[in-house]
Amino acid sequence: MSRHLILPLLLVLAGSAEVFDIMTDIQDLRVPDSTACIQEHQRLAECVKPHATLINYVMSTFKETDVYNIGFMRKALQISKNVPECLGQEIQCPVPKFVVFSLDTAIYAGEKLYGDAFHCFINAQGLEITENCVKSVSRGPSSIFWLDTSKFQTSKNELIECVAKKLYGVPSCSIGRIVSLYQAGSAGIDWMFEASQFDAGEPTGSVFSGDKYCDY
């Protein structure tokens, strides 16, 4: 799974700590050769810069077990809120638009995960459950399901059902908490698909809406 999901989503984890420089990463992003997109890219850098030191620290020290540290994760979630508030919604170019989509997804999923549902997540060892279900659905590292557009929705449903079944029966996992984790997970998986399209140079230009997960 992509390391870069840690900042926007904080759900897919880095295997080990390393030196991280968010400003260098932004500088290296592909930017269309147009005045408007260059200006939006500069605006993105300006919005991130005040938080760069904290972002670099979080990204460089992050460990898998930190997903169970609710205080740490809520601080990281606050970073996700600051940047899109600065950028605003009136953006058109692929890179900043994808960043806003990612951070809006992060805010939605993070508030679901690190709200009341956290009691279920930590007691059920939700990270380990999810990792095992991803391996089951992907059926090996060569067939990561969110890279296959033809099978994405079917595999996504299979993964979420796998996780949900393992949560049932855990005393702290009420139906309401399972639904919240279901919503957070669904948004996160959709982000993985969008990220794979973006990395392939085929950004969809999607705008995040939590309403699509209200029926779960």
Automatic annotation (TrEMBL):
It comes from the Eukaryota. Keywords: Signal. Residues 1-19 form the signal peptide. This is DUF19 domain-containing protein. It comes from Caenorhabditis remanei (Caenorhabditis vulgaris).
